[in-house]
Automatic annotation (TrEMBL):
Name of the protein in its database record: Peptidase C51 domain-containing protein
Highest taxon, organism lineage: Eukaryota
InterPro entries noted in UniProt: CHAP_dom, Gsp_Synthetase/Amidase
One Pfam match: CHAP
Organism (species): Paramecium pentaurelia
GO molecular function: ligase activity
Domain (Peptidase C51): residue spans on this chain: 32-176
């Protein structure tokens, strides 16, 4: 199967480009070319921001939050470690953070735009995974995900990477890994989801 080349644009919802990570070959001599830093002099933010390693899932998630909310979570070893973070940096100030709240799958609080969807470590995803919830439809019960480095085939369409079925039972919200419009026999059939993670802008520290 012909997959998109590394660096191919997969989509650009809400002004944030998602790039393909298929076919990446690590060259230690080029490590500084893979890492992305945004100096405050170029962004207008109050602090420098380390965006991440091209074009990993964590890099996309941090870049999305920085561009849309001017907040960036700290550097983490792997994607699943984001779930353990209690705060996220307020990039409009030299110092200061916001609470970074977890909503485990099955919470009574529905997901919303800008929440991060977090996957744990698994056999298929050895570093876990993180994506961004870019659309929530409570009536039709689905969420759209923006992400990088989830699978080689890339995005389903330019508007979103995957459209996932959401179940609502007894006032609880469950995001499944089943995709609308596709037979559920993909490699990720048994992948679990920690839940969604949200910035609490009402409490600045």
């Amino acid at each position: 199967m012909n997959y998109p080349a590394w660096g191919t644009v997969m989509g650009q919802p809400f002004g944030v480009i998602a790039y393909c990570n298929t076919g990446f070959t690590f060259d230690r001599n080029k490590i500084h070319e893979y890492q992305t830093y945004w100096p405050k002099e170029e962004t207008g933010l109050a602090r420098d921001v380390y965006i991440g390693f091209k074009y990993q899932c964590v890099e996309y998630a941090r870049r999305f939050l920085t561009l849309n909310f001017k907040a960036a979570f700290q550097d983490v070893p792997h994607a699943h470690h984001i779930w353990a973070l209690d705060t996220i940096e307020d990039c409009t100030k030299e110092e200061g953070t916001f609470p970074f709240i977890n909503f485990p799958n099955g919470s009574q609080e529905p997901p919303k735009f800008g929440d991060l969807i977090i996957y744990p470590y698994s056999k298929e995803q050895r570093f876990g995974h993180v994506g961004v919830i870019i659309n929530v439809n409570l009536e039709e019960k689905f969420v759209d995900i923006g992400e990088q480095n989830y699978e080689e085939a890339g995005w389903e369409c330019p508007e979103y990477a995957r459209r996932l079925i959401m179940k609502i039972e007894n006032g609880q919200y469950f995001i499944t890994n089943q995709r609308i419009g596709k037979p559920y026999d993909n490699w990720d059939i048994k992948e679990e989801i920690f839940g969604w993670k949200r910035i609490n802008f009402n409490q600045n520290k």
